[in-house]
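[Automated response] Your request has been received and processed.

Submitted sequence:
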Amino acid sequence: MTEPILRMAGISKSFNGVPALADVSVDVHRGEVHAICGENGAGKSTLMKVLSGVYPAGSFEGGITLEGKEMAFRSINDSEAAGIVIIHQELALSPYLSIAENIFLGNEKARRGVIDWNATNTAAAELLKRVGLRESPATKIYEIGVGHLLDLIDQLRDQGITCIIISHKLKEVLRIADRITIIRDGRTIETMRRDDPETDEGRIIRAMVGRDLNSLFPPREPDIGDELFRVENWTVHHPVDTERVVIDNASFMVRAGEIVGFAGLMGAGRTELAMSIFGRMYGTGISGEVYKSGQQIDVRTVDAAIKHGIAYATEDRKKYGLNLIGDIQVNVSASALSRLARLGVVDRYREYKVADSYRYKMNIKAPSVAAITGRLSGGNQQKVVLSKWMFTGPDVLILDEPTRGIDVGAKYEIYGIINELAAQGKAVIVISSELPEVIGLSDRIYTISEGRITGEVSRADATQETLMRHMTAGRN
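Generated structure:
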């Protein structure tokens, strides 16, 4: 085989001493479609940021060779000048500008400082024809949907253009890729050829999730009661592109004392589902019903959701879950101040006593509740978030990525808290990107893909391979 057009050799990258990539090597050959697959957090995006110059030369170990020449990209401009263009998973488009304006944004066709709209629209029309998009260059982005690009990638390959794709949709990977490299936990696991008879979805999944599930979870004997919480026919539309369905007719239920996991790949709709249920914090055109203990309830606002005993701990505790410049005391009381107020005035002594009791019960490592929350470790911050919602007296807790960014020891403590909440008879929903975590915590697991619930798996039947198969299921 000829020398690769692109070689990334021995790439290692750490953040605050935590390795994101460890000696990753990938060879990409001229004119091929090369897929890179891995779980959320495997290191795929970090690798592409290294390649594109987002993480400049000198900030990582290893080397990049393009057409036999060593490269040292210092920025995205450097990599683009060398002929490498990254199209990110999030569509970097302005929804209220036209197709033509978006295509040439930052690279405007201008004469003497004035945009030549005739030339802009003509050039845009030629590009649209090339990619097979039958739209006017004047069409606003929010008026069009997300197109299927496999045929275009085939066309690019026929033109000799080398493509790297990153996708969780394994059927698409097996349809389009010539070779597939698997990354797991920041390391290269293997590269396989699509035309190898042994290359199938099962092989890819095994390589993606091949970690051992160790005893990282505290023991628990579930005591599961009657149905406590049910969502039926829940449909949510995108807040900007209102024709786009983000959650499609989802139905699920949770019993008292039960921990139910939600597993899905990035962009599957897990967080959007949770936020739309909790006071319609996300989406438009929401339809469907929510029931608690068999009675339909109104969750049209956050206050209404809290009143009905629903709590939602966000996946981004630092941005949405906590007041980082406030102390533990004000954070714990924030979602239920009315329980501490007399004649509209918060009783600060009662607030202190409540916060201090949670500091003790949750083992929050701080000298007092006057400690500033932003100075706590990630694990202790998460305990403050959980304390805040437990103080509201919920019956249903939705925990979105409850252990993201915290160490193994703190995770074990959080798992113990989650188990205790279930033991109290609460209905607990855990959303997590870590399959071992979902399996280790949950009594049942729902999988979600492209906004649809694609599977319901019991604890006894739950394996990483089974879940990944459901999580990568498409709409067809």
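Summary generated for your ticket: The chain has three domains: 6-90+147-208, 92-145, 227-471. The first strand starts at residue 6 and ends at 15.
If you did not submit this request, please reply to this message.
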